[in-house]
Amino acid sequence: MSKPRTANVWLSKAAVNGALVLAVVYMLFPLVWLLTAATKDAGGLLAGNAFSFDGFDLGGNLSRLAEYNDGIYFHWYANSLLYAGFGALACSLVSVAAGYAFHVYDFRGKEQLFGVVLLGVLVPTTALALPMYLLASEVGVVNTYWAVLIPVLVNPFGVYLSRVFCAGYIPDEALEAARIDGAGELRVFWSIGLRMVMPGFVTVFLFQFTAIWNNFFLPLVMLSDQKLYPLSLGLYAWNSNAHAEPDFYPLVVTGSLLAVVPLVVAFVSLQRHWKAGLTAGSVK
Question: Major location, coarse class (predicted)?
């Protein structure tokens, strides 16, 4: 009886490990293609040998990327860091504050208002781009940094997620103890609530940072000045010109490779907060 059971265990492990290997290969395949294709010139890319390192010219591609149009690529890079960094940080703080308020305080129409927040989760962001453009044009912020920053400061899913984290991480006793010690509500939130729910803050930050970094449709609608473009819109403009001018292909590929770096750095550097959150309730 033990031999068939042992065989079944090995088959199960092999199936699971095989599925994991296929998933890893599927996810890493585009990155490997970027790494090798970024070393090619236009002729090497069009020849279809992107996976080889023949004609290695990564340094030349980086140099041309930095020199083209007075280095506008790195201007787009700075814009994306501004949009994603400031927007994600502010959105995370707003989301956690809103989730904290929904969890801690009782007020009239609380659940109905939270239902409206949940409805906001169901509305795709692309459907809101045109109404936001009309609002921005009324206010006079179209084709400015604020046209992209203001809409990303609120994320209904972030509010929902923050309330869930607050319910799991913030005990009422800790808040009551702080109030008894004379702390005001803002001090209680900032010194106790926000610190306890930091894994949720990091989670919302990473989700929003990734969404803003990859955001394309909102900048496309709001911006017409190339100096305000984020990377997603700038690379799209270059790729549109690549059909007529193949020399744009190496610029697009090399720029796409560099565009991945902030996302990798953000996830690797902040993953310890997730690990801390996963084990927060394991020991009493």
Answer: membrane
